[in-house]
Design a protein that fits this description.
about 45 residues, mainly alpha, globular, about 0% strand, 3 helices
């Protein structure tokens, strides 16, 4: 849903994601399933 507001994985994107209570849990699931790299190399600062 955050991609509606921020279409990339910039710092702004992750700042919004971090406001949601279960975001880290969902991200862990995506990492475990191989849908997201473990490193945050796609974060633009």
């Amino acid at each position: 849903m955050v991609h509606i507001i921020q279409p990339n994985h910039s710092k702004s994107f992750w700042d919004i994601v971090s406001q949601y209570k279960l975001a880290e849990r969902a991200r862990g699931y995506l990492i475990a399933k191989g849908f997201e790299p473990e490193a945050e190399s796609d974060i633009e600062i």
